[in-house]
């Protein structure tokens, strides 16, 4: 690595297994759950701790849209009573969790396509919120989704979320509020959605873990959401890969209410989590053959640092090889696909502006890129790349580069260059922090075959095992 890059170690107070209540904000959910079961801390104490953290930091970071403090305390009291009675405890019992604001939480404002923030109240819980509650989680509120998750140019009355690594910078868009809140130790787990990289990119810019699961693996009937169809998925953002596996174990699996849900049972994300990567074959790409067109001044250093971080896998007994495959830029077709999220007249104009020949060309491009992925995965278990080619932009850089008029109503090509292919093709992918450049997080993306989230998560666990996710110094 270069002199300005550092590995993914940082000011984490103690080892997670030894964490006590004094370091609760940096303690992973799985460890908090152990402390609760051992009656070393109560769900109410846990909830009060994180509510205080949110109330202290949110005026600076602007991460929460709706904070249901009273509701969270009521849930936590019931969870505490269950511990006192000796009830069987769910896998997330007493763990505070937030969700992205387009995910329905009964009684809280929800934001979907065509809504203004706070204009509609959810009548019922989304399927994934139902599952979180059954697992014992304490739902504390919803996090800000700037730009309805798809339009970086759309202003937000609450203010754009700020990056806890540097509050003059942003944590991206879409699941930005959730990512910043997890990175700052305001919440141990948040649930986001990913239509072009919206769990992975904010996670990368914030130095945490973000998973894009296979489309339909976590069911939903929120059909006005901007990311539940067209390659979208739901997934957790965490500071610990074991938490990622624990949450996926809770949320994944079919539901008859969702016609698009994967019908086969979900894999076991926890079984084999610590099996390592010895004997696995990884392919590496710098930029898929096209993302370099969006390079920023610091991009070469970032790519080198991320590539160097993959030596972690070779140290663990895996093979990492540069792939010779080069993909074609699918952005124009993806832009056209996501234009369907716009107003009805925009959708009609999209249909009127495309000919049978242009649609045929798009399908042929899709097929050529698919063949390239098939060739890579025929000889490799997983594919590696940078998650993105720049570090967190300043607010000014975000406003000038990512809010240009021609980028309205869809994600920007530069922002999603390394991620959107895997929404189009349905491959699960996870972003894991792999160091810093210039004091800001950089990230490695691990991509697997369709429905292979368990292997993707296992590789992420191996990569970070024994290397705690760094805490932003200002908030440590």
Alpha-carbon distance between the two ends:
25 Å
Name given to the CATH homologous superfamily: Amidase signature (AS) domain
**Percentage of β-strand residues:** 5-15%
Low-confidence stretches: 7-16, 149-153, 340-348, 405-411
Tell me the radius of gyration: 21 Å
CATH topology: Amidase signature (AS) enzymes
Q: What's the overall geometry?
A: globular
CATH C-level category: Alpha Beta
The domain count comes to: 1
Task: Please state the structural category.
Answer: alpha/beta
Tally of contiguous helical segments: 15
Mean pLDDT across all amino acids:
86
| CATH architecture verdict | Alpha-Beta Complex
Short description:
With 476 residues, the chain is an alpha/beta fold.
3D structure, described in words:
The chain has 15 helices and 12 strands. With 476 residues, it is of the alpha/beta class. It has a single domain, classed as Alpha-Beta Complex (Amidase signature (AS) enzymes). Strands 1, 2, 3, 4, 5, 6, 7, 8, 9, 10, 11 and 12 form a 12-stranded mixed sheet that branches. Helix 7 packs antiparallel against helix 15. The longest helix has 24 residues. The protein is globular, with a radius of gyration of 21 Å.
Tags for this model:
12 strands, Amidase signature (AS) enzymes, alpha/beta, globular, 476 residues
């Amino acid at each position: 690595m270069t002199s300005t890059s550092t590995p993914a170690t940082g000011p984490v107070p103690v080892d997670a297994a030894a964490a006590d209540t004094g370091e609760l904000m940096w303690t992973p959910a799985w460890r908090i759950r152990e402390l609760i079961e051992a009656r070393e801390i109560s769900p109410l104490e846990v909830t009060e701790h994180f509510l205080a953290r949110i109330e202290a930091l949110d005026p600076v970071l602007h991460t929460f849209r709706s904070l249901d403090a009273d509701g969270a305390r009521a849930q936590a009291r019931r969870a505490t009573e269950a511990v006192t009675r000796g009830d069987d405890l769910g896998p997330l019992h007493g763990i505070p969790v937030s969700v992205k604001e387009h995910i329905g939480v009964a009684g809280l404002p929800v934001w979907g396509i065509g809504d203004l923030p706070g204009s509609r109240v959810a009548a019922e819980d989304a399927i994934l919120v139902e599952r979180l509650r059954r697992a014992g989680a304490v739902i504390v509120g919803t996090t800000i989704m700037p730009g309805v998750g798809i339009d970086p140019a759309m202003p937000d009355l609450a203010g754009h979320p700020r990056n806890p690594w540097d509050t003059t910078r942003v944590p991206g868009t879409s699941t930005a509020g959730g990512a910043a809140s997890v990175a700052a130790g305001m919440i141990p787990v948040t649930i986001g959605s990913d239509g072009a990289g919206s769990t992975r990119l904010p996670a990368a810019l914030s130095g945490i873990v973000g998973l894009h699961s296979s489309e339909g693996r976590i069911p939903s009937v929120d059909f006005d959401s901007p990311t539940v169809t067209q390659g979208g998925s739901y997934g957790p953002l965490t500071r610990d890969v074991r938490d990622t596996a624990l949450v996926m174990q809770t949320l994944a699996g079919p539901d008859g209410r969702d016609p698009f849900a994967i019908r086969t049972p979900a894999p076991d994300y926890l079984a084999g989590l610590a099996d390592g990567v010895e004997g696995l074959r990884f392919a590496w790409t710098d930029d898929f053959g096209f993302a370099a067109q969006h390079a920023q001044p610091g991009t070469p250093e970032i790519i080198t640092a991320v590539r160097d971080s993959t030596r972690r896998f070779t140290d663990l007994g895996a093979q990492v090889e540069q792939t010779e495959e080069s993909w074609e830029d699918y952005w124009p077709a993806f832009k056209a696909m996501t234009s369907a999220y716009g107003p009805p007249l925009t959708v009609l104009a999209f249909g009127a502006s495309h000919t049978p020949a242009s649609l045929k060309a798009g399908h042929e491009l899709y097929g050529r890129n698919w063949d390239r992925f098939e060739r890579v995965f025929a000889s490799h278990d997983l594919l590696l790349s940078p998650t993105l080619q720049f570090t967190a932009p300043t607010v000014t850089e975000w406003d000038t580069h990512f809010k240009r008029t021609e980028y309205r109503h869809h994600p920007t090509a530069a922002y999603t260059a390394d991620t959107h292919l895997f929404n189009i093709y349905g491959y699960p992918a996870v972003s894991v922090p792999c160091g810093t450049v210039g004091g800001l997080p950089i990230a490695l993306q691990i991509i697997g075959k369709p429905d292979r989230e368990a292997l993707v998560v296992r590789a992420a666990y191996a990569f970070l095992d024994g290397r705690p996710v760094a805490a932003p110094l200002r908030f440590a």
